[in-house]
Amino acid sequence: MKILIADDAAFMRMRLRKLLEEAGHTVLEATNGEEAVAMYREQNPAVVLMDITMPEMDGVTATRHICQSDPKARVIMVSALGQQAMIVSAIQAGAKDFVVKPYEVDRVLGAINKWAQ
Amino acid sequence: MRFSEVQWDSEEERLLFVEEAAELLGTLEEGALKTPPPMDAMFRAAHTLKGSGGMLGLTQWVDRAHRVEDAMDRRGHPNWEWTPELQQFVLDTVDAMRAELQGQNEDPGATTVWELRWDSTCAMPGVRAYQAWTAINALIPGTVSEPPEDALAEWTGEVSRLVIPSSTVDPDVILTTLQSIDDLQAVTRVDRPLQFTPASLDAHESLDTEEVETRRMTAGERRDATIRISADSLESILEGLGELLLDHGQLEHLWQQTIDPAVRNVLDHLRRRALDLQDLTLRARMLPLDTLFRQYPRAIHDIARKLNKKIQLTTTGGETELDRVVMDRLHEPLLHLLRNACDHGIESPDQRRQLGKPEIGMIRLTAFTAQGHVHLRIEDDGAGIDWNKLRDKAVRQGWLTADEADRATEDQLGELLFRPGVSTADKITDISGRGVGLDVVRAFLDEIHGGIHIESQTGQGTTFHIELPMTMAIMTALLVEAGPWTLGFPIANVERIEDIAKSGLASLLGQQAVPDGQAPLPVYSLADVLAPEVDHHDRYIVRIKDGRTQAALTVDGVLGQQEVVIKPVIGLTGLTPWLSGVALLGDGRLALMVDARRLVPATGSEIEASQEPDPILKAGSNQMELLVFRLSDGQRYGINVYKTREVLPQATVTRVPGQHQWLDGFMHVRGQTVPVVSLHRALGLKEPFNQGFVLITEFNQTVQAFPVDQVERMVRVSWDQVKPLPAVLEAGNTLQFTGLINHEELGAIQLIDFEQLLAQVAPPEFPVASEISTEDLSHFLVWIADDSKVARQQIEKALKPLGVRFKLFSDGQELWEQVQVADPLPHLFIVDVEMPRLDGYTLAARLKNSARSRGIPVVLHTSLSGHWHADRASQLQVDAVITKFEPDVLASTVRELLSRPQLMATW
């Protein structure tokens, strides 16, 4: 399955990529919101893992753009604790679910499997 | 597919279908009853019904609609005819389809509540709760989250709730949807009743809609949307507003000294807003009479068919608005009158032909507004009433003397038809059954303060004229004082107020006629009519005209006019038929609203049937009226209305040192100083919050005041509903209770044993009967029933010097059961009035009616005083009524009764 990771932190992207590839997925990477939106249009991934705080365009805004152009998009927010209000806005914008950093492997894969069906 | 199996996309969709279908079915039904029927419109209606049913896959529905459509489709065909059979087929089909619909149309207000418990390790429960709301709301729009969805961003907690509107969505689907959300530990369905639980429906509640449409009053984009609100909720809102106005009155009272313009402004604004809201709410309760009228053409059709008559009903004035509460109560009597008109008014087609009348009988139902009332007329062009036959019958039945019958006007004779029992009398062809249930019709209308009278021309037809108040909840009243009471009259009924000194009345004593242009007018002193013995100084004359009742009433004072909210007085009407309700005044006093028609006899109706006392509260019905109040614990308590005199706003209490700890002090009430007793301290509660009310009571021949927090209403209860207080409740109290009633609307009402309470505050002296008997009375046996231990001891002590033997019973039932089996029976009964299970009035009536005990004297022994009780006691054939507690009187009465010669002879 094709999965897009949007995160400005290279370390996080690396960790996630490793985890996902081990589970047999294809991984795409974006380093900010704008890139994520553009890449979603070009590559049409099955699931997006979206960080909230990113330069150029934040994750909530990016989610809104993606979900507006594709209401069926499956965006899962990846967030730190204490960002509850942001995630509620992301869900209003169309995000399907969220996982909390630092995440447990099972949770991330569980969320992806659930929403990819 | 069946209707109940339809999967609706949304509640809106379902409602839209139901409402539209109901309208189309209405078109079909109304069309089928018209001559000629509007075929095209009916065809279209059937077609649309078929179409929308088809969209939902409703097989049976579609089939029915199709057959109607098919039948109508052949219209215009040379052999096609609109036959009675076809008409009936359409009507039957409408009924069947409506039944299918109604199965779905129940209880639109019901909601289900789901409690969601989130894992304690859940990082952001607010997000989860929000996800849950989003998912369910997509399924069933209108779902509400608790905490509210827009507050969830900030929410942390473990339990949230979803309030889901009723829908056809399977609960399992809701459950599965919720379970797909992470971190959800448990889902529980915790339905709770709606905030305003619908009260039990009246027996004659028969409109099929329990709701009224009302305008949504919130600002914003949905201004024009309508919502349904239960009539009970509306009622609660009205009551709340009434109480708000009352609070305002009290505030104003408290602040009347202030000149601070800011305070004045706020007070004025508060009052204006509350009045506006009351007005809006009242208007929301009004419905056009068409809602009621619409169902009658069909009813008449069915009745006519059964009777093999041809009858057409026309209605006019359906746009006239009427209080929904009144309208609900109106349905039954109206249907009764219409049925009567069909059954006994309109002749058979053959008869009508012979009489030269059109074959089709006409019934006209007309509504209009005049003089602050709604008027209804039910006219038929049938046989009418044969007044001469009625005269004969009245004489035969002994209602009138031959002379009276000759002089009686048609109006007066018409009144006879409303007598109970007229229907059971032998038949007079033309009016046979005319009286069927007319007494019942009048009773129904009495309840809603409506009036009815009959006009008829023999052979031409009959007209019933009904007059109704537009609303029962609010009116402008003229407030007057008579004796100790404040009373109110609907301003619409007040013709004139005059100063006695300047009125030019020759004399006011008795019931003298006042020269008044044409008609002489009877003059009554209001205070005398209410209670002959009270002190009063009449200074004004109020002329009242209400329907056909006209009278001049003299009163002590005139307080002016005021908008009042009327609270019904349930049940009390039996004893005080003139009391149409109670209004709470701004200063917290109660004003008694007078129905003048029931206070003084109608003018010129000297032959009016004597009124039987209302059976409801007549002595021996084992019932009582309770005034329900609340204390600072929020619990409800009750006191027998017979024990109460009035309710006052909190008054100044003068404290006196060194008194019993339950005694607050004394207060001044109408020239009398009365002790103020604290129920709060007796029950170990905290003191009443600031401004409450004071119950002024009268029993044991003394007057005493009890501060309470809230006075609610009066309820009628039966003594057999009185249960002993559960031991747990009784245990912590130093007070004794007569018992507990579980009222169907108000819940638990505790009955404090007020005599016992008073005995504890002021221990009764035990003046031993001074005359010691010289005769030997020791062979006499006396049975005593009293639920109060203190009272039993007192009686025992009082009777001891007489030397009689006695047996004690703790309530009426216990004594009554013994009467059935005991041998020998006693020589005398002494019974208390207020006792659980079987009260003293009822016990006395039974003892006097039973062959076993008829000859034995009964003494009614009670703490109740006042004329209400005296009235009721006088209906019983007891041998003596003694007020508690006068040992001398008791002892001498007992001795006298026991020494009666006939008594000696019996034994």
TrEMBL record, chain A:
Gene3D superfamilies in alphabetical order: 3.40.50.2300
Residues covered by the Response regulatory domain: 2-116
The keyword Metal-binding belongs to this UniProt entry's keyword annotation: no
Claim: Protease is one of the keywords in the record: no
Keywords from the UniProt entry: Phosphoprotein
A GO BP annotation: phosphorelay signal transduction system
Source taxon at top rank: Bacteria
Chain positions with 4-aspartylphosphate modification: 51
Transmembrane segments: none
Function: May play the central regulatory role in sporulation. It may be an element of the effector pathway responsible for the activation of sporulation genes in response to nutritional stress. Spo0A may act in concert with spo0H (a sigma factor) to control the expression of some genes that are critical to the sporulation process.
Stated name of the protein: Stage 0 sporulation protein A homolog
Natural source organism: Sulfobacillus acidophilus
UniProtKB/TrEMBL annotation, chain B:
CDD domains: HATPase_CheA-like, HPT
HPt domain boundaries: 6-104
EC number(s) from the headed UniProt entry: 2.7.13.3
Domain Response regulatory: start-end pairs: 781-898
Phosphohistidine found at: 47
Coiled-coil spans in chain: none
Cellular-component GO terms for this entry: cytoplasm
GO biological process, one term: chemotaxis
Name of the protein in question: Stage 0 sporulation protein A homolog
GO MF annotation, one: phosphorelay sensor kinase activity
Keyword Transmembrane: no
InterPro entries: Bact_Chemotaxis_CheA, CheA-like_dim, CheW-like_dom_sf, CheW-lke_dom, CheY-like_superfamily, HATPase_C_sf, HATPase_dom, His_kinase_dom
Pfam families in UniProt: CheW (PF01584), HATPase_c (PF02518), Hpt (PF01627), Response_reg (PF00072)
Keyword set, alphabetical order: Chemotaxis, Kinase, Phosphoprotein, Transferase, Two-component regulatory system
Classification lineage: Bacteria, Bacillati, Bacillota, Clostridia, Eubacteriales
Modification 4-aspartylphosphate, positions: 832
Record's catalysed reaction(s): ATP + protein L-histidine = ADP + protein N-phospho-L-histidine
Domain Histidine kinase, residue spans: 263-472
